[in-house]
Amino acid sequence: MGMGDEVVAAGQAQSLWDLEQTSRIAIIGLDGQPRWSPIWDGNPIIATAADIARGEKVRTVLNGPNCRPYIVYPFTPETGWTFNQAFRCADHIAKIYLTDAERARGTAAKKKYGEYVLIEPYTKHGNFAWAADKWAELVSACPDLCFVQHVHEHSTPIPGAQYEVATFREACGLAAEASVYVRSESGLCHAAAALGCPTVTIFGGCMDASVMGGYPLQTSLVDDGKRTPCGSWKPCGHCDRAMQRLSVDDVALAMLARLEAASHA
């Protein structure tokens, strides 16, 4: 769990604000205390602990460690995740307020490369990983497209892609100008939805795409195996096989369809 959870939390705050634009919203954890995440920087509807200490009256959204709305609690690494079918991330689309410098990462990339497809194969959860050789095949199979990979110290560079070193928020700037963003399920998929970037999200067999996906400009690639979504926290053979069954053609066709739809928009 990480930055994507905080994008979803900002989306919950945005939904509450859209219903009634009165008092601002504090995002609180299980201890009832207001929290802050760097992805909320610049967001005018989210109140800080300092705002509350000064006496500001706020409404609250509960979302934090051990109280994420899409998970049924309790869970353990042995049981894995069960997904809350009453919650849909797509019902809570956040707004992300990029700085001029962060947004300039995308405009500079577009000036440098022209129209581009943004990718990043890295995931900290092995059950979400689509194989590096498939990413390389995807890039080589589409020689007329420019692929830009936002990279960091844990990234595996994909041959044939252009590389842009970027933090999470800088990657948001790159997503804001991308023609389409292709990657396995991650926090940046939620951020891309907040920024209006079309996405192809490779879910495989672990996460529940009906809960975690379904954004308006998102194509979700889900394995149809009997155990999907398995919610496994530990390394999982089912998830490995699910990702293996999602082919380069599956991803390329979904990507090209998104590009075609964007060209007509």
How does this structure look, described?
The protein has 265 residues and is an alpha/beta fold. The protein folds into two domains: 3-69, no CATH class; 102-264, Glycogen Phosphorylase B (Rossmann fold, 3-Layer(aba) Sandwich), CATH 3.40.50. Helices cover 35% and strands 14% of the residues. It has nine helices and eight strands. The protein has helices spanning 3-19, 49-53, 100-113, 132-141, 168-177, 187-194, 209-212, 237-245, 248-264; strands at residues 25-28, 59-62, 117-119, 147-151, 162-165, 180-184, 199-204, 218-222. The strands form two sheets. Strands 5-4-3-6-7-8 form a six-stranded parallel beta sheet, sandwiched between helices. Strands 1-2 form a two-stranded parallel ribbon. Strand 3, helix 4 (132-141) and strand 4 (147-151) form a beta-alpha-beta unit. Helix 1 (3-19) runs parallel beside helix 6 (187-194), helix 3 packs across helix 5 and helix 4 (132-141) packs across helix 9 (248-264). The longest helix has 17 residues, at 3-19. The mean pLDDT is 96.
In total, how many domains does the architecture comprise? 2
Distance between the termini: 34 Å
Amount of helix? 25-40%
Strand content: 5-15%
Strands, count: 8
CATH class of the largest domain: Alpha Beta
Question: What's the CATH H-level homologous superfamily of the largest domain?
Answer: Glycogen Phosphorylase B
Could you spell the SSE succession in H and E letters?
Answer: HEHEHEHEEHEHEHEHH
What integer is the average pLDDT? Answer: 96
Major beta sheet, strand line-up: 5-4-3-6-7-8
Unreliable stretches covering 5 or more consecutive residues:
none
